[in-house]
Write a structure and sequence with these properties.
The chain is mostly beta strands. The chain is built from two helices and 32 strands. Bound molecules: beta-D-fructofuranose.
């Protein structure tokens, strides 16, 4: 008996020790991204309800608290004061009507705004009400609100604000303020008939956030739309509207508050395999003025991890007028510098062919690096970087092919033309992702990968001729969880 109770006590001590595993250890797992957001455990997909309020960036996300696969959607919640370091908060939105179903009445994607004018009439003290718009799957478009800076959420008693239409498959409301018409605008994915060809984005307007009027529809879109207005860089009076599709592709055009008129073909904003369900933050202060986007890195693999999913690194959007026309440009937010650790730097180095005997960057090792390089192509035929490799294992290659004018990585081959015979590559390497921003964010490729354990080497290689490294910096990256 005594032996039994000692064994029981020992077991309890062990269990307590396991369950109180320090955060530092939890966030050091083999496939745990070190500077990209992941929930502590369980499944996540789309970012939802991105809103800035009172010094805090809120990010909600599609979350299954029951396991590591999609289903039973709730809104997980995290808050950051710098868009880099994230603190976990309790689940914000639960399924409606006490649904225990995998799908029905669960809290699908949506957005959030600050109710500055107290249109919902819920404000109690000085804090403005935060209002979330979400799809209650098969139960209509709905509202939830918080009167305490997003800490607690209530469902609006007048739900649904747009009732279910069984034929239109509507979801993912993104709400924004349209200054010229002084109205709220909702962009909503839906079909206008049972025909799948009518899948697209419907535009609705409202004066009170509760009653919504359908205005127009544009075909050829699928899930998670977003609409943003961007000033053309260095042209204070010129603006372009961008209508994003779920996979980050977009139309550039004009929006009059009711109808979107495309001025471009549908263009890709990311050439990788894992950029999905993009969303931009609402209510970013005017003094800041940036448009900041984040996306879910769909289809990433995280073998044997307690979590399943990761977000991209947040990026800043802008539009630039080039001699060939207007283009969306995307760059990692400048706050990335906060994470810089040890810096390795090179200037004006000429590289000659040969992979392993002549590796300029051989002193660098790591699984979390920020690499910024500018290269003069001189007479080189191709060049690139080998990431996460060792003497015995090849690792993951990023290759620029001069003749073809393409950059290749992880099965993507993407056009990338030199500018004045120069190529710029900015690479964000984390434990399970590689994001490449080429030529100052004109071309972006976001991919997940699952490298083997223990490979930490990086190489710069070239073939066929001379390559000049005009300037190159490699920063070791700090962990947002552990450092
Ligand atoms: C996109 C999406 C959304 C939907 C959500 C459900 O990934 O399918 O359309 O609201 O995920 O989790």
């Amino acid at each position: 008996m005594r032996y039994l109770s000692t064994a029981l006590l020992a077991l309890i001590v062990v269990l307590v020790l396991i369950s109180s595993k320090p955060e530092k250890e939890i966030y050091n797992e083999l496939y745990r991204p070190q500077y990209h957001f992941t929930p502590i455990k369980n499944w996540h997909n789309d970012p939802n309800g991105l809103v800035y309020y009172n010094g805090e960036y809120h990010m909600f996300y599609q979350h299954n608290p029951k396991g590591n696969e999609w289903g039973f959607m709730h809104w997980g919640h995290t808050i950051s004061s710098d868009l880099i370091h994230w603190e976990h908060f309790p689940i914000a939105l639960y399924p409606d009507e006490n649904s225990e179903d995998k799908v029905d009445c669960t809290a699908y994607s949506g957005s959030a705004i600050v109710d500055e004018k107290n249109l919902l009439g819920k404000q109690t003290g000085n804090e403005k009400t935060l209002v979330a718009f979400y799809t209650s799957q098969n139960c209509g478009q709905r509202i939830a609100y918080s009167t305490d800076k997003g800490r607690n959420w209530d469902k609006f008693e007048g739900n649904p604000i747009i009732p279910l239409n069984e034929k239109d498959d509507a979801r993912d409301p993104k709400v924004m303020w349209h200054e010229p018409t002084q109205k709220w605008v909702m962009v909503l994915f839906r079909k206008t008939s049972e025909d799948d060809k009518t899948k697209g984005v419907s535009f609705y307007t409202s004066e009170n956030l509760i009653d919504w009027e359908w205005k127009s529809h544009i075909h050829g879109f699928y899930e998670c739309p977003d609409l943003v207005k961007l000033q053309v860089t260095n042209r204070p009076d010129e603006f372009k509207w961008i209508l994003f599709d779920g996979d980050g592709s977009y139309f550039m055009g004009n929006f009059d508050g009711e109808t979107f008129t495309p001025e471009s073909a549908k263009l890709k904003s990311d050439f990788g395999k894992n950029y999905y369900a993009t969303q931009t933050w609402s209510n970013i202060p005017k003094e800041d003025g940036r448009t900041i986007q984040i996306a879910w890195m769909k289809d990433g693999k995280f073998p044997e991890m307690p979590f399943n999913g990761q977000m991209t690194f947040p990026s800043e959007l802008s539009v630039t007028k080039f001699n060939f026309g207007y283009k969306l440009v995307r760059k990692p937010i400048s706050e990335i510098e906060k994470l810089h650790g040890k810096d390795y730097s090179w200037k004006k180095e000429v590289i000659f062919p040969g992979l392993s005997n002549n590796n300029l960057i051989k002193k660098v090792k790591g699984d979390c690096l920020h690499i910024i390089g500018e290269f003069d192509l001189k007479t080189v035929e191709n060049f690139g970087l080998m990431l996460r490799h060792s003497k015995k294992k090849a690792g993951t290659e990023i290759l620029y092919n001069v003749k073809r004018g393409t950059v290749s990585v992880l099965g993507n081959t993407v056009p990338l033309m030199p500018i004045d015979n120069k190529i710029k590559l900015e690479i964000l390497l984390d434990r399970t992702s590689i994001e490449i921003y080429a030529n100052d964010g004109q071309t972006v490729i976001s991919n997940c990968f699952t490298p083997e354990e223990g490979l930490e080497g990086v190489e710069l290689f070239s073939n066929g001729g001379e390559l000049e490294v005009i300037k190159m910096d490699i920063f070791e990256m700090k962990s947002i969880w552990r450092d």
